[in-house]
Design brief:
Elements: E1 2-3, E2 10-11, H1 25-29, H2 34-50, E3 54-57, E4 62-65, E5 69-76, E6 81-87, E7 99-102, E8 109-115, H3 123-137
Antiparallel strand pairs: 1-2, 3-4, 4-5, 5-6, 6-8, 7-8
């Protein structure tokens, strides 16, 4: 495990490329609606029930990381958040993902969903949250 001396982020590989102190959680949430902020906080709280992780604000997203990054919030919209789960297989039979695809040259499949309310964080979504988290703590799977 390598820790960046400038931003204190932990990484699997030494000198791993990252957005070092480009953004903060506060800068992502600044000016966002109460709905968006509530959905963001609820999503983070639900993930905290699953296990320990670190939030990594980067230039264009907020990464969720255990041993590796397993999920990212890629957009905080007017009344929603866009989330991408990094999974090791394609899950086509679902009601929560609107876009799915394999990252070229890898065994990772990104699954995109848009969360409008706390009710959208339902049992089906929580199942995929857990799958992604489990992959994040087992670095050899990705």
């Amino acid at each position: 495990m390598w820790i960046c001396p400038l931003c204190q982020q932990k990484f699997l590989h030494q000198n791993q490329n990252h957005s070092c102190n480009d953004r903060t959680l506060e800068s992502f949430l600044e000016g966002k609606s109460e709905i968006t902020t509530q959905v963001f906080n609820r999503f983070v709280d639900e993930y905290r029930k699953i296990g320990d992780f670190v939030l990594h604000p980067a230039k264009s997203k907020i990464g969720f990381a255990a041993k590796i990054r397993f999920c990212s919030i890629i957009n905080l919209g007017k009344n929603y958040i866009d989330v991408v789960f990094h999974l090791n297989q394609l899950y086509e039979d679902n009601l929560c993902f609107h876009k799915m695809g394999q990252i070229p040259g890898s065994n990772t499949f990104n699954h995109h969903c848009r969360i409008f309310s706390a009710d959208d964080i339902n049992d089906e979504l929580k199942q995929y949250m857990l799958i992604a988290y489990d992959l994040g703590i087992k670095k050899e799977n990705l």
